[in-house]
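Issue: copy button drops trailing tokens. Both records pasted manually instead:
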Amino acid sequence: MVASIFINGIIGTPNVFENGEFTSFNDVERQFESFEKPDSITVYIDSIGGSYRDGFRIKNFLQNTGLPITAIVTGDVFSIATIILLSAPLERRFASKDSNGLIHNPKPAFPTDGDAAEHEARARDLRKIEDHLASVYAENTTLSFNEAKAEMSKDELIRPDDMIRMGLIAGISERLQAVAMFDLNIDDMSNTEELKGISKTLADIKKRLFSNEKSPLENVPVVDLTEAKTDETPALQARIDELEAELAESKAKNKEVIENNTALEDTATKQTEAINQFKTQFVALEKQIQGLEAEKKELESTPIIQTEKKSPTYTNKAGKSVNYPADVLAHLNQITTNFNNR
């Protein structure tokens, strides 16, 4: 079974201010774990890049599975997404004819404050990351360390032909589909001339597919259909049907993972709103308590007003008994009760 992993949008985990499609390390881990005992991995990439940390975590995770990895660029492969592309060996890296690549020097995610010393420290960190990226490109492509740094400094789009030249990919993936378009349900396998013609067509396709002389697939042999047996054709068709079923299953599981992630994000948003509402209520309650305390202090410091009618007494904090009108005393007692019960 092939484990299909989809790297789409921005690589990393969004913060509360970011929207759009994201693929984090945890997303990739969940996608892989949704497959039961896969024997290989195919990574489909359409990403403008993102988190340096998540990109390398995804690359290391895929390689540490120990399974054969194929990487196919279906749209864009920018920035740290190229590092995930390098999780597959060169002979298993492909791109669509309309895809674009881009490598560049690292940049801080957000503008930062700080004095000159702090900015100098950040610049040194960025230089270290730049050297690390260049060394990874030099190790996994046909570029040298200095050539990689020069390409990174350009910060320009890379078309598929140049991606082949640089050793980022081995070939154009959409041409591979031409081989799969042949109908293997040939009724008469005894027609040797017809089979030789098909074999020649396959050889021509191979020649056009990997015209780049540096291609590692240059010496891959083309199967001679004249040696095929009639009873092998149903088996080949059955294998194709099996692979198509596995691909459909992979897409369904990936859709389920995305829906689960969306539900988790909705729950987190609701919890954040509830916490913010609680904070607002707490601040209002604090203000109310401060008002009650101020009012109590004001009443305690109010001078005694003597009236002809004797009023109930109230003992203030100084231990002095004072007379208040009954309505004032009732109000004061209510404030005291509210304060003690807060």
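Record 2 (pasted manually too):
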Amino acid sequence: MQKATGTGPSSRGSCHPASSLAPEHVRTSVAREPGDLVGAYVELRNRKALEDRKAHRYRLITELKSMKGAFDLSSPIKQLEDDMAVIDAGLAQLDTPTAAWAPALGLGLHSRGS
């Protein structure tokens, strides 16, 4: 039988978030979201994913604003609103012609390699 060292997952208790069990690179990448994730969706030209994320945040904001109680929910609401602003910026980028389309449209945009 192994002696408990106090450093394993069982010593952390159930009150710690599961993300504290994740390796550092995973926790760091989660912390960078939503900007990096929005950037990936823009690069993949995945408008539906961005619209779904925005709609989900809107539903969360609506639900949080409808809650009554002793908790101050202004901070999570502000974070969700900030996330929506990042998503809106990503959607705006999808509305802008890419450098690959520019020559065909006569826009004179330069590609990344030039």
